[in-house]
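Course assignment 3, question 2. Fill in each field.
Student: A.L.
Task: Predict the tertiary structure for the chain below.
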Amino acid sequence: MSFEILFEDDYFLAAAKPAGLPSQPTVDKSRPDFFTALKQQLQQERGKDFYLALHHRLDRDTSGVMIFAKTKDANEPLADLFKLHRIQKTYLCLTKRTQKAADAWEVENHLAEMRDAKLKKMKMVRVNSGGDKAHTLFKKLEVFPTALLVQAQPLTGRMHQIRVHLADRGMGIFGDDIYQAPKEPKAPRLMLHAHSLVFVHPFTQQQVRIECAVPEDMQAFIKTLTQ
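Answer field:
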């Protein structure tokens, strides 16, 4: 598999992560992951000394844009962009249609990690005290008979933030295997896509916008929603 390069300059490189691959190495060293595979691809193309550093992640079943540092000098500026929330991340997702969905809304609460004994997986839950702040802006983009195309812009970076914020409103994302979500029509995977990153480049001071097109599996699922 050859990964699409979405953006590159002297400091950063962004590529399209496919759904189904973990963003980074897992405990199972034999399991493929996006960062390792992308780095191997680039080292084969450009030489074994090609440098690439990981600074954020997407859920395994989420597709979309990821950005990496290409030099050691770029590590701290890129880390600061994420830590200080100076990268505007925009996701697209397909959710259950409900009457609660306004044209635009936001969710701001606190989330904590817990283990779901039934699923035997870690998940995030809303808590009234403790936990970490989670803040997301939502916008309704398109309405289907039983579904919505929703834009989500997380202002914080909690695990599963978009998924739990939508599920709590009865608007679960199609294909979600952890949070409450519609079962029909059956989605091929989690219908969540990291569509774009926008930021002021720390070295050039120019605004950068990086987009990743909606992948074919998500486009095909959208067609089933219109039937």
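Instructor remarks: Residues 34-46 form the longest helix (13 residues). The mean pLDDT is 94.
Grade: pending
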